[in-house]
From TrEMBL, chain A:
GO biological-process terms attached to the record: amino acid transport
InterPro entries per the UniProt record, alphabetical: BCAA_transport (IPR051010), Leu-bd (IPR028081), Leu_Ile_Val-bd (IPR000709), Peripla_BP_I (IPR028082)
Name this polypeptide is given: Branched-chain amino acid transport system substrate-binding protein
Keyword Transport: yes
From TrEMBL, chain B:
Keyword Transport on entry: yes
Compartments where located: Cell membrane
Keyword Transport annotated: yes
Record field: transmembrane: 6-31, 65-88, 95-115, 143-161, 193-217, 258-279
Keywords per UniProt: Amino-acid transport, Cell membrane, Membrane, Transmembrane, Transmembrane helix, Transport
UniProt-recorded name of the protein: Branched-chain amino acid transport system permease protein
CDD domains: TM_PBP1_LivH_like
Pfam families in the record: BPD_transp_2 (PF02653)
Organism from which the protein derives: Nocardioides soli
Membrane topology designation: Multi-pass membrane protein
Length: 393, 293
């Protein structure tokens, strides 16, 4: 019994400490010399790799803005949480940000569409503007139901339109489609199966589990329809298995494609010889040094790539870092337009009135009906040539 | 019926099934020695595959060297697991050991996340790239190697448990560790051997899996659960049962992917697990030994 007393004391001391910690977690939002922006990215848990890139992109934006004198003289006080890919954790953290951290504007929806969709009702009900960095179009559509919510990522509709344009230009009429079973893959499947038949393209689909280690049964099954191109839609390492399996079953001559979630040099390198010649629909960022200098986006991408490499020991930014950087910068631009007033409605009006915001991911044109802001013109078809991405012909 | 597709499904099933079998063997070894379910088993697979990939990429060592070092590192992790559970934690009952392994699995996964910087790592096949053509189907050469490894590991462990003194001691420890201790055999020592062997076999599975896909800190957990399902299917603690269970589970998943709804391929393992727990808790090849209390 005696032995237990110190333990009890320690426990209660710890409890008291943690309670203090919770209570005191910065409630300095709304002060005159700072603007508090809150961000959630999953830098641990599955998808941690992408979350880490997003955090780096957003952190770079904050650093640049603050070094540049902030927003009308007020610096950004950045509050960051890691929900580790868990939606219920993210909901608690969002509430905490808004209730006790004094967050006035939210940028970044946890790095997963499911989390962003859960955060939207919370930020909206508090009248706080939310700029998401996640893919699902349902986060902002229809815009009249999400007046305060925006995102700096492509809708899969835009990507699918670009794909169809590319297939039509290359006389491709039969496509094998392999989405993963996540909401990212399933949403693309919906769009492709809706839009492709109208364009005269026949799509046969076989989904796969993101944790799968072998996809040859699906590849072989789809091969029965004699498709001219094989397209996968995933952000998970299973996409590497897809590349290896397609080459193993069908040889080197078949056209292999990936969606914009798989634009990652590391994945391509790891697929070895199997990735050479892979075509991807992507933002222009991976080929920023190969596109026409007259493109208004070119200098923005060049500056971003240089600043990012400088900040992170020569590391090259990927499209996820770019999206997060854009989201933070859109928020900053809007706050500058409102004179630093973080009121949700004023910020939303300002974003819709930005005109064209030339970002890293594309030239955003937000309107009252379009809270995603990107169009087919912002998409490139790129090709992995064995050592780097190049624009596809 | 499309023979090519059928052969493809079987090959795919055997390829993945061989990995499940190795994981299942690992569960069996620890179960035999301690009566506990070691949920770090899946993480051993991750550590084996991930560290081999990291060694290969960072130091450009030959693949075989990377694999051997990875197996050694993982075996050390197995020994550390034992030291944590039975030494530091002073745990002795199967239930408490089982629960504590879950905590260790979380720690191992978190450490791997930080050490790997959340990146994925690949490993080329020991047999080189290129694929095997079999009756209109195709598979990676690595598949063949994995099947061979699984069969050899099972044969070796079967001989070890039946024919060697240490193997017999390990089995005796499971059956009655207190009596065994009166003979002067340390429970800790037998348990440490079991964790070391389980970790080594897990690392072997990881090194076999890495060339088929890529490894990340996140690769182990689900594999662990599937390996557990395979072990239950074949009969926990029986190496031959683990092989049969692993291959059957792999083929069942591949059939689901090739002919059914791929979205449910992952569910197969857990439906099998539920069914086997309800209908035949000792597994297909398990003895009718009841759970001791």
């Amino acid at each position: 019994m005696r032995k237990k007393i110190p333990t009890l004391l320690t426990c209660s001391a710890l409890l008291a400490l943690s309670a203090c910690g919770l209570g005191s977690s910065g409630s300095d939002g709304g002060s005159d010399d700072t603007i508090t922006i809150g961000t959630l990215f999953s830098v641990s848990g599955s998808g941690a790799n992408l979350g880490d890139k997003m955090r780096k992109g957003a952190a770079l934006a904050v650093k640049q803005v603050n070094a540049d004198g902030g927003i009308d003289g007020r610096t950004i006080d950045w509050v960051f949480y890691d929900p580790a890919g868990d939606t219920s954790t993210a909901v608690q953290q969002t509430n905490r940000m808004l209730d006790s951290d004094g967050v006035e504007l939210v940028v970044g929806g946890g790095g997963s569409s499911g989390i962003a969709l859960a955060m939207d009702p919370i930020t909206s009900s508090r009248g706080v503007a939310f700029i998401a960095t996640e893919g699902a179009r349902q986060i902002v559509e229809p815009a009249e139901d999400h007046p305060l919510t925006f995102k700096t990522t492509f809708n899969d509709t835009v990507m699918v339109e670009k794909l169809i344009e590319f297939w039509q230009a290359n006389d491709i009429t039969r496509v094998a489609f392999m989405p993963d079973t996540s909401s990212f893959g399933q949403s693309a499947q919906e769009e492709l199966e809706r839009l492709a038949p109208e364009a005269g393209i026949e799509v046969s689909t076989a989904a796969f589990d993101p944790a799968a280690n072998d996809l040859t049964p699906q590849v072989k099954r789809l091969a029965g329809n004699d498709p001219q191109a094989y397209l996968a839609w995933t952000i998970t390492p299973a996409g590497v298995t897809f590349l290896k399996n397609v080459r193993s079953v069908l040889g080197d001559d078949v056209m292999v494609m990936h969606g914009f979630g798989f634009v990652d040099e590391r994945y391509m390198t790891q697929a070895g010889a199997a990735s050479k010649g892979t075509l991807l629909v992507s933002p222009k960022l991976p080929v920023w040094d190969e596109i026409d200098k007259s493109d208004e986006q070119q200098p923005v991408m060049e500056d971003f790539a240089a600043a990012y490499a400088d900040e992170y020991d020569g590391e090259q930014p990927n499209v996820y870092a770019g999206q997060a950087y854009d989201a933070m910068m859109v928020a900053v631009e809007a706050l500058r337009a409102t004179g630093g007033d973080p009121d949700g409605e004023k910020v939303a009006d300002a974003i819709e009135a930005l005109g064209t915001h030339v970002g890293v991911t594309g030239a955003f044109k937000f309107t009252a009906d379009d809270h995603s802001g990107l169009s087919v013109d912002d998409v490139a078809v790129i090709r992995w040539d064995g050592s780097r991405f190049m624009p596809a012909k | 019926m499309d023979t090519g597709l059928f052969i493809q499904v079987i090959l795919s099933g055997l390829s993945v099934g061989a990995i499940y079998a190795l994981v299942a063997v690992g569960f069996g070894v620890v179960f035999n020695a301690t009566g506990a379910i070691n949920f770090v088993q899946g993480e051993y697979v991750m550590v084996g595959g991930l560290s081999a990939g990291m060694l290969y990429e960072a130091w450009d060592v030959p693949v075989l060297v990377a694999i051997l070092v990875a197996i050694a590192l993982t075996t050390l992790l197995g020994v550390l697991t034992e030291m944590g559970l039975l030494g530091f934690g002073r745990l002795r009952t199967p239930a408490s050991i089982t629960i504590a392994t879950i905590a260790i699995a979380v720690v191992v996964k978190g450490a791997a996340m930080l050490i790997s910087n959340r990146d994925t790592f690949a490993l080329p096949s020991l047999l080189g790239p290129g694929s095997l053509q079999v009756l209109g189907a195709s598979t990676s050469r690595q598949t063949l190697l994995n099947l061979l490894l699984a069969v050899l590991a099972v044969a070796a462990l079967t001989l070890f448990f039946q024919r060697t003194k240490l193997g017999t001691t390990l089995r005796a420890a499971a059956s009655d560790s207190e009596t065994l201790q009166t003979f002067g055999v340390s429970y800790r020592t037998t348990a440490r051997w079991a964790f070391a062997i389980a970790a080594a076999v897990g690392a072997l599975a990881g090194a076999g899996l890495a060339p088929l896909t890529v490894m990340s800190f996140d690769s182990g957990t689900l594999l662990g659960l599937k390996g557990f399902a395979a072990a239950m299917l074949g009969g926990l603690g029986n190496p031959r049962g683990a092989l049969a269970g692993g291959l059957m589970l792999g083929v069942a998943e591949a059939v689901m992917s090739g002919y059914g709804a791929a979205a449910y391929a992952d569910v197969v393992a857990f439906v099998v697990l539920l069914a086997i727990l309800t209908l035949r808790p000792t597994g297909m090849l398990g003895t009718s030994r009841a759970v001791r209390t």
